[in-house]
């Protein structure tokens, strides 16, 4: 399934699709075949920069715009700094009966959601099962691919035996030269198809494995210490990029008491790269009461 975060990753890596690899301040060229022109990649990067610089200016757009959902009716929340954030169906002029959703100040909602999100991705406790599940699934898939490769290689070997057998039969006068050529053409076609399948499986087999638990623990120690503090003080444009990369969504649920609410966060947590797109693990975090 192609998600918004998948498209965002592809666009942000437009220069790679143009055959340019940025590494430690250097541009490495001709390492990978270009899929698009360099001019097109530069236009994509310029558009992304323009969008980042203009999406959040003067209150035009919030970092959670289109990402907050009403837990009662499933419609979007209207995010406003002056009049507060509420479900679009809470206005009796738009819907009757109006949705009994809770109205929340933007400052309060933004702080609560970001604080919960940062705790979830820097604590990483919730990702332990995700990492182990991903690793387990990869091992199963890897074993299945190994079996498929062995099966295809055995078929290729049998074709080679048939090729030698036909050559012997023609040498002994059992079949004619025309029959030999026809048989070789058929074998070559089948051999080409089987080898193409083997190459595709070999490409997948050569991709990096998901992190094991020991590697993940080392990453967690660095992430929580070096990154956690910076995220606590992140500006809105950084928050917006995180929300896009993690495909973050917030579902608001009102509580029984006045103006009380709690929310669920759903996110796709990238664990490794699969080809040109990130492999993600779906996660849902439930917050404590929002107020």
Identify the notable features of this structure and list them briefly.
291 residues; alpha+beta; 4-stranded mixed sheet; two-stranded antiparallel sheet; 8 helices; 8 strands; 52% helix; elongated
Task: Provide an overview of this structure.
- Helix 4 packs antiparallel against helix 7 (213-232) and helix 5 packs antiparallel against helix 6.
- The strands form three sheets. A four-stranded mixed sheet has the order 3-6-7-8. A two-stranded antiparallel ribbon has the order 1-2. A two-stranded antiparallel ribbon has the order 4-5.
- The protein starts with a helix and ends in a 5-residue tail after the last strand.
- Among the domains are: 1-55, no CATH class; 130-205.
- A hairpin with a 7-residue loop joins strand 4 and strand 5.
- By secondary structure, it is α+β, with helices and mostly antiparallel strands.
- It is built from eight helices and eight strands; from the N terminus they run H-H-E-E-H-E-E-E-H-H-H-H-H-E-E-E.
- The longest helix has 44 residues, at 128-171.
């Amino acid at each position: 399934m192609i998600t918004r975060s998948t498209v965002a990753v592809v666009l942000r890596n437009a220069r790679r699709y143009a055959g340019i690899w940025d590494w430690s301040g250097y541009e490495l060229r001709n390492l990978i075949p270009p899929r698009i022109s360099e001019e097109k990649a530069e236009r994509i990067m310029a558009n992304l920069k323009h969008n980042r610089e203009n999406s959040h200016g003067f209150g035009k757009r919030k970092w959670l715009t289109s990402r907050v959902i009403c837990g009662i009716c499933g419609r979007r929340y209207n995010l406003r700094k002056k009049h507060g954030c509420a479900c679009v169906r809470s206005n009796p002029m738009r819907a009757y009966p109006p949705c009994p959703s809770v109205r929340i100040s933007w400052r309060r909602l933004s702080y609560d959601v970001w604080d919960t999100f940062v705790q979830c991705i820097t604590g990483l406790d919730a990702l332990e099962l995700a990492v182990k599940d991903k690793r387990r699934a990869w091992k199963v898939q890897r074993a299945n691919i190994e079996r498929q490769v062995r099966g295809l290689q055995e078929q290729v070997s049998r074709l080679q035996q048939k090729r030698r057998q036909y050559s012997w039969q023609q040498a002994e006068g059992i079949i004619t030269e025309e029959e030999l050529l026809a048989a070789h053409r058929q074998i070559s076609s089948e051999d080409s198809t089987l080898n193409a399948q083997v190459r595709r499986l070999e490409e997948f087999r050569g991709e990096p494995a998901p992190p094991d638990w020991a590697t993940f623990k080392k990453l967690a120690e660095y992430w929580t210490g070096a990154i956690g503090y910076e995220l606590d003080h992140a500006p809105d444009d950084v928050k917006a990029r995180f929300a896009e990369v993690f495909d973050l969504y917030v579902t608001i649920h009102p509580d029984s008491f006045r103006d009380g609410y709690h929310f669920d966060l759903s996110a796709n947590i990238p664990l490794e790269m699969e080809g040109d797109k990130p492999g993600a693990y779906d996660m849902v975090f439930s917050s404590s009461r929002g107020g």
